[in-house]
């Protein structure tokens, strides 16, 4: 028989979140709650999207940053603040500081997307580029804090930050009082910890489920070990939740209050992002799409009504282009084929004409005649096709083979 020691007092309680909510009145938006008919049909219960991608600065990060900076003593404000971030936290700190009249310096990786760098500067921060990876950027920011006396604003490991993020949970209870499951993307854990602290104090029956990217999932091994552990070289397209180690304070709350942590693949993230864009008409970054990815991967695993928190919408346009292509491929909407045909006039046109009849959109054609693998009268064609889904892909390949072509479906 095993005994569990009494839980230590929580670093953040409901009163903290209620205080943060008052502080954020007139500063942070009460973001919209949108129903999703498509996801509701999949899940078999109402699914609502909490649109923090429509928050000021494009993510929930403003909430925690503002509460943290607003709580500084006058002498701390006079010294200024410093942060390290690849995007969302940077913009949240920059705007919060400007609203409060505090000087801010934000360190960003040298390869940070230009739109995020520009937005951070426009919100009023001095931006310094340092380091190739976020760990190097974080070190540079902390060195600056030691050298200048500026207050370092951690993105998730501080009670004020967690309390600020927890105001999302209060809004969910107000907007969807019948909610039974809340699904939240998880990096360091500040958002899910704050939501759990607020929601469980009022509605302990509501399930709170965290979602991590498979390649950056530090919480499952940490929860198994009973303390935060690091994941080496976390890798995921979802940079907003690409965190190698849980925060100490969020971990304590997650361990006690969050019902489950799930993981999702890169294909599931990109498919979720595509669904948000096509079906919900919402621009969401990969980290913000993580809860939707979890719903897609196991639709019947979430008691409804369900609220999925879309935590942010700051995505670089070039990355968005790649992600959409990846999402369409993962959804079976792209088909890459290699096939051989007789090298004679009109052969390529005839083959392309048969694809038109099958209602496939040809995106790219590569025509090879001189490869030594080919016979004297043969040519090879590589095709990139836009299709209607997996069944249409199979139909196209089968029809081309029936027409006499040697067809290889590429990965």
UniProtKB/TrEMBL annotation:
Pathway involvement of the protein, from the record? Amino-acid degradation; L-threonine degradation via propanoate pathway; propanoate from L-threonine: step 1/4
> What Gene3D superfamilies does the database record attribute to this sequence?
3.40.50.1100
Listed InterPro entries: ACT_dom, ACT_ThrD-II-like, Ser/Thr_Dehydratase, Ser/Thr_deHydtase_PyrdxlP-BS, Thr_deHydtase_catblc, TrpB-like_PALP, TrpB-like_PALP_sf
- Key word Lyase present in the record? yes
MF terms (GO), sorted A to Z: threonine deaminase activity
Q: Which UniProt keyword terms apply here? A: Allosteric enzyme, Lyase, Pyridoxal phosphate
Question: What is the protein name given in its UniProt record?
Answer: L-threonine dehydratase catabolic TdcB
Traced from the root, the source organism's taxonomic lineage reads: Bacteria, Bacillati, Actinomycetota, Actinomycetes, Kitasatosporales
């Amino acid at each position: 028989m095993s005994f569990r020691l009494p839980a230590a007092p929580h670093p953040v309680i409901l009163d903290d979140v209620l205080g943060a909510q008052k502080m954020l009145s007139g500063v942070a938006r009460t973001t919209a709650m949108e129903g999703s008919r498509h996801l509701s049909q999949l899940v078999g219960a109402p699914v609502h999207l909490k649109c923090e991608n429509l928050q000021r600065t494009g993510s929930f990060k403003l909430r925690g940053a503002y509460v943290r900076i607003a709580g500084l003593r006058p002498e701390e404000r006079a010294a200024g603040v410093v942060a390290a971030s690849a995007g969302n936290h940077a913009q949240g700190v920059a705007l919060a500081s400007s609203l409060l009249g505090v000087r801010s310096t934000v360190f960003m990786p040298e390869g940070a997307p230009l739109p995020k760098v520009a937005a951070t500067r426009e919100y009023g921060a001095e931006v310094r580029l340092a380091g190739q990876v976020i760990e190097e950027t974080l070190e540079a920011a902390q060195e600056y804090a030691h050298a200048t006396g500026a207050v370092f604003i951690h993105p998730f490991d501080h009670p004020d930050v967690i309390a600020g993020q927890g105001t999302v949970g209060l809004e969910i209870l107000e907007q969807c009082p019948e909610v039974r499951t809340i699904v939240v993307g998880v990096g360091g854990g500040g958002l899910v910890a704050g939501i759990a602290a607020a929601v469980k104090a009022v509605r302990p029956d509501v399930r709170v489920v965290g979602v991590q990217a498979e390649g950056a999932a530090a919480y499952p091994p940490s929860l198994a070990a009973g303390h935060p552990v690091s994941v080496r070289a976390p890798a995921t397209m979802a940079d907003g939740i690409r965190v190698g180690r849980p925060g100490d304070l969020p971990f304590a709350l997650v361990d006690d209050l969050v019902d489950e942590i799930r993981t999702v693949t890169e294909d599931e993230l990109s498919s979720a992002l595509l669904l948000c864009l096509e079906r919900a008409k919402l621009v969401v970054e990969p980290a913000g799409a993580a809860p939707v990815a979890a719903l897609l991967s196991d639709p019947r695993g979430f008691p409804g009504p369900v609220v999925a928190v879309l935590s942010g919408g700051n995505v670089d346009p070039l990355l968005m282009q790649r992600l959409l292509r990846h999402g369409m491929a993962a959804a079976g909407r792209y088909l890459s084929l290699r096939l051989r045909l007789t090298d004679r006039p009109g052969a390529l046109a005839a083959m392309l004409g048969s694809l038109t009849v099958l209602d496939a959109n040809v995106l790219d054609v590569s025509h090879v005649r001189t490869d030594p693998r080919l016979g004297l009268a043969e040519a090879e064609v590589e095709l990139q096709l836009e299709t209607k889904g997996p069944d249409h892909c199979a139909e196209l390949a089968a029809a081309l083979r029936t027409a006499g072509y040697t067809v290889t479906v590429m990965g």
